[in-house]
Design goal:
The protein is built from two helices and 13 strands; from the N terminus they run αβββββαββββββββ. By secondary structure, it is mostly beta strands. The chain is globular. Helix 1 crosses helix 2. Strand 3 and strand 4 form a beta hairpin. The chain has a 13-stranded antiparallel sheet.
């Protein structure tokens, strides 16, 4: 499930890294973490122009705001303009995100992910000459299911060449299942009955011949047939929460 790419929010540290490499790793981690939040999507047959506002927060990063404006609906493909404001960054990051809502799931696009990743890194000051590739499965978020349903265990690798340096981020889902249905979750946007999806994810960052592996856990609360209203990612004793805070319809 591609939402796990960048599923950690404290840059891995190796004492042998030079300052440029540390900056690149930190920026890539931030970019991919932001993409993680951008895949928290909601759609309730709303009109074009509807705005979904999310907040992504933890003690280390502070609070980022993710504003998603519904731009286009073509059959089952829903396109959003996503504007993310991150503490400490001079200007918001803007991207377009197209997802497929069909067959009881939200399906992600590898092409969209790559385009967004490059755009995010460019806006974060990493330059325009960025090579990036993806190997593996894009994954999906379920919109339906019952307790005990086992979801696919996937593995994906993003490889980036930034400022002449190679960096791999490998994400492997080792547990992925629905653990509750009709669970009530309250966010600033309201109270929702949800499907609860629990995942365990191993994320490995490779750079300069060295590896850093982290074990992550994520809980996602999904309103059936509508989308994600809350996620909690836990790694290194820290919790990152992304939640829907407001829906504004034209």
């Amino acid at each position: 499930m591609i939402t796990q790419v960048g599923g950690f929010f404290k840059p891995p540290t190796f004492i042998c890294y030079n300052k440029p490499m540390k900056k690149i790793i930190a920026t890539l981690v931030l970019a991919l973490t932001t993409l993680t939040a951008s895949y928290a999507q909601y759609y309730d047959n709303d009109p074009v122009g509807t705005v979904y506002e999310y907040e992504m927060s933890n003690k280390l990063m502070g609070t980022s705001t993710i504003t998603q404006t519904l731009k286009k609906v073509e059959g089952n493909v829903i396109t959003y303009e996503v504007v993310t404001k991150v503490p400490g960054m001079k200007q918001p990051m803007t991207m377009e995100n197209a997802l497929t809502f069909a067959d009881g799931k939200i399906q992600y696009s590898v092409e969209s992910l790559m385009a967004q990743s490059k755009a995010t890194l460019e806006q974060a000051g990493m330059g325009s000459n960025i090579d990036m590739s993806f190997d593996g499965e894009a994954g999906f978020t379920p919109l339906q299911g019952k307790v005990g349903d086992k979801l696919p265990l996937t593995k994906a690798t993003i490889t980036a060449k930034v400022q002449g340096m190679d960096l791999n981020v490998i994400t492997e889902i080792t547990r992925n299942e629905i653990t509750a249905v009709d669970e009530e979750v309250t966010t600033p946007a309201g109270t929702f009955k949800t499907i609860k999806v629990e995942q365990e994810v191993k994320t490995t960052t490779q750079a300069m011949g060295m590896n850093q592996t982290q074990e992550n856990k994520q809980i996602t609360w999904v309103v059936p047939n509508k989308g994600v209203v809350k996620t909690e990612m836990t790694t290194m004793g820290q919790v990152m929460t992304t939640q829907l805070v407001k829906i504004t319809r034209p």
